[in-house]
Write a structure and sequence with these properties.
With 792 residues, the chain is of the alpha+beta class. The protein is 45% helix and 14% strand.
């Protein structure tokens, strides 16, 4: 673009200002964007949370409350990084970089420091919006565009596309399909940027299949968007049978409206976007190009993965599936399942190839090596020399997800995997030609650099050899963006909120899976293996994620993710993260695991309590809903449909009044932060009713037999159904081990183990009993099998 020279000047100016801040004695720091939003009445004397002035890396850094010495220490470290690695950000060095390199470097060093003493806007956001406005002015001057245009792109059907697959090869296919959605999102964004002559700086918000772009307003903007929509949706309709659809919406606005009435513009656009999503393929139907009934009969072939049977599609014969077929896209996605984790560059090819994915008429080639062709995206890596790979045309792509490779599995599991591979390799030597293809297909996933199969991840579990599915989703982010800013809503604020949420789900989540979040080494949820957890991130983007892995690792991971998210968002009660975790046999269909975990997530999101009037004008609170508070921030763990049916039966029989405060007999979801009206305080139900009892149960595993916990669980079942609790039997069982339990004291509580067991199992507490099945089930799963500790 011809405005590149001007953008280069803006980014260099911003980087020089960033360097100046690091060199100065300035004591102003950036207030976290998460400390600038909320629905509770803002406290006048509160101590702000400040972002550590770190450079962008994959490692998560948490805000600190108050201006302590740590802020100064980090500032010095980053200044040394600038001087040692980036030539002190000298003008000569910066002038040698491309616009895209400057933009990345600017986000790296300018995203966590303030533009002024108020500390509310980062230097990066300030100059990013300045660059976006500059591009708009350029379009007004050179293209005759008018005023401003806020564009929304919304991809619907993502969940159906990713999870609507057959079970065989599902894990590999799921990863590929989630990456394909990321690629589709970038493809669509690129089409809009090119059509409206824009730069990446004009992307205001991007996450979860919803993108907001700030543009100048050409007279024919509706036609431009309709042309993109019609060609793209026609292709999506033909390729995916309507499962995927992209809605385009836009609102024209003046400079004054953008400055003074931004929230009104955003709300108007949100309304238009909602309407557009309800009118799928309307433009194609109106033009008569939507095919309601195909002229040809369905193809004799049908894809065994996605079920497609279109006549125009190419199908690949799969002999190992007894003559089954895969459509060309599913076949390619499965083949690339092991290639995507190693890919580093994406460029546009001139024809189809084995390492490419196509969208419309564009072939995107994945490559490990920097191609001679101009690269358009490069997977972000935390290397110091990463900036060199960006070059003149590429932009960083935050799409790498944590995956567990075979060579990273625990030694005992690697041994079993290697034995199986060696057995198959020996069998291959005497196999017939027909047998070879089946044996080779089984050997391939067992190679050290391949992604671990769920069968082997299940072997990494503590106790029961099972896998877990975890779905998580941030709560009420849309409401926060529309109504949650304490001060004036600005373009910079919206951009900062989106960028920081994206960094957590697209960047830091990988580090949380890989490394400890800083717990004590003997903590209940601390990493069992130093080289990371035995899990796969299937999808993580926007504000939600899906993870599969060894059940014990995944159960501990959900605790770490939430702990990290709450610290990262300044313990803001209005920014919650809900999750649903289910446990399965490794052979259970992966798409069904995803569905069940989603049901658990929905159950968690429905875990609401009565409004506790946390603000004066509580009746006008965006989170107020007919007497209930819409804060969720809950976890449903070890969820099953059987438990739901049992709870519904119990609740129906007990028939609690609609607004009653009594504890339900059985709770399937617990809150990370629940307001206790009697004590007028917030309670962490997860810590109180899962972590604490589980810690005491774990400490007693060498003393108490497995049958004790099974008996306790069976007695609890009787209480759930009949409200009859046989406390004498619990006491009798505990008395048999009284002396041994008395001798053990548990950190950090200081109580002996007998007293802790007595509190959790004997002391009548309906709140505790309603959730006691969770720590009991966890402990029973962990004790099953009696596997020896692994040596690492």
């Amino acid at each position: 673009m011809t405005f590149d020279g001007t953008l280069k000047e803006i980014f260099i100016e911003g980087l020089l200002k960033s360097k100046e801040w690091y060199q100065s004695e300035n004591s102003s720091y950036l207030i976290s964007i998460f400390d600038q939003v909320g629905f509770k009445d803002e406290e006048g004397d509160k101590i702000s949370y400040f972002v550590l002035p770190v450079s962008l890396t994959p490692k998560i850094k948490y805000p600190v409350q108050g201006k302590g010495e740590k802020l100064k220490e980090v500032k010095k470290v980053v200044l040394s990084e600038i001087q040692d690695i980036y030539d002190g950000l000298s003008e000569k060095y910066l002038s040698s970089l491309s616009v895209n390199q400057l933009y990345f470097l600017f986000e790296k060093f300018g995203g966590n420091i303030p533009i002024d003493d108020s500390g509310k806007v980062s230097i990066f956001e300030y100059y990013k919006i300045k660059a976006a406005r500059t591009v708009i002015e350029w379009n007004r001057e050179h293209e005759g565009h008018m005023s401003n245009l806020l564009i929304n792109i919304d991809i619907s059907g993502i969940q159906r596309f990713i999870y609507n697959i057959a079970s065989e090869g599902a894990l590999k296919n799921l990863r590929s399909r989630s990456f394909y959605i990321e690629l589709l999102s970038k493809h669509i964004t690129k089409r809009v940027l090119d059509a409206f002559h824009l730069h990446q700086a004009n992307i205001l918000m991007d996450g979860g299949g919803s993108i907001y772009i700030l543009s100048a307003c050409p007279e024919n903007y509706e036609k431009l968007l309709t042309d993109i929509s019609d060609t793209l949706n026609s292709w999506l309709l033909r390729e995916f049978n309507g499962r995927l659809y992209v809605a385009f919406s836009a609102v024209a606005c003046s400079d004054e409206e953008l400055e003074k009435e931004l929230m009104s513009v955003v709300k108007e656009l949100a309304k238009k976007a909602f309407e557009a999503k309800q009118r799928k393929f309307y433009s194609l139907i109106e033009k008569g190009t939507f095919i309601f009934e195909k002229k040809e009969d369905p193809e004799y072939y049908q894809c065994v993965v996605c079920g497609k049977d279109d006549t125009h599609c190419e199908y690949v014969n799969m002999p190992e599936r007894d003559g089954g077929y895969q459509c060309s896209l599913c076949n390619r996605l499965i083949k690339l399942g092991n290639e995507i984790p190693d890919a580093r560059f994406i460029y546009i090819g001139d024809k189809d190839s084995e390492d490419s994915l196509w969208i419309e008429d564009v072939y995107y080639v994945l490559s490990k090596d920097n191609p001679a062709n101009d690269c358009i995206w490069i997977f972000y890596e935390g290397r110091e020399d990463f900036i060199k790979d960006i070059g003149a045309t590429a932009f960083p792509l935050f799409a790498k997800t944590y995956l567990r490779l075979n060579r990273s599995l625990p030694k005992k599991v690697q041994k079993e995997l290697n034995n199986r591979r060696e057995y198959l390799e020996q069998a291959l030597q005497s196999a017939t030609d027909e047998e070879r293809q089946f044996i080779e297909k089984e050997i391939e996933p067992l190679k050290p650099d391949n992604v671990a199969d769920l069968d082997y991840l299940s072997l990494c579990s503590e106790g029961s050899q099972l896998v877990a599915a975890l779905r998580m989703d941030a709560d009420n982010l849309g409401k926060i963006l529309q109504n949650g800013f304490y001060g004036e809503v600005t373009l910079e604020g919206l951009s900062s909120f989106s960028r920081n949420i994206n960094n957590f789900f697209r960047l830091y989540i990988n580090t949380i899976c890989q490394q400890s979040i800083g717990r004590d080494k003997d903590h209940l949820y601390e990493l069992e293996y130093e080289n990371g957890r035995n899990v796969h991130i299937v999808y993580s983007g926007g504000d939600d994620l899906f993870i599969l892995g060894a059940w014990s690792d995944t159960a501990k991971l959900v605790m770490d993710i939430n702990e990290a998210f709450h610290h990262y968002t300044c313990n803001n009660i209005d920014i919650g993260l809900s999750g649903g975790l289910t446990v399965h046999h490794s052979k259970f269909p992966v798409n069904k695991m995803a569905d069940t975990a989603l049901s658990a997530l929905y159950f968690a999101k429905d875990n609401r309590q009565s409004c506790w009037m946390c603000r004066k004008e509580w009746i006008d609170c965006p989170l107020y809903d007919t007497g209930k508070c819409l804060r969720k921030d809950s976890l449903s763990i070890f969820f099953t449909e059987y438990m739901v049916a049992k709870k519904q039966s119990i609740d129906k029989r007990l028939a609690h009044p609609k607004y009653a405060q009594e504890t339900p007999r059985m709770k399937l979801a617990l809150k990370w932060k629940r307001y206790d009206p009697s004590g007028k305080r917030l309670i962490n139900e997860i810590d109180e009713y899962i972590t604490k009892p589980l810690l005491s149960f774990k400490a007693g595993r060498k003393i108490m037999p497995k049958s004790f916990y099974h008996t306790a669980l069976s007695l609890l079942e009787i209480w759930y159904i009949d409200e009859k609790l046989y406390l004498p039997k619990i006491v009798w069982l505990m008395e048999k081990f009284r002396d041994k339990l008395k001798k053990l004291k548990i950190k950090p509580y200081g109580d002996n183990l007998y007293d802790l067991y007595d509190m959790n199992l004997h002391l009548y507490d309906t709140q505790r009993f309603s959730t006691l099945y969770i720590p009991l089930s966890w402990n029973i799963l962990a004790m099953k099998g009696g596997a020896e500790e692994d040596e690492e």
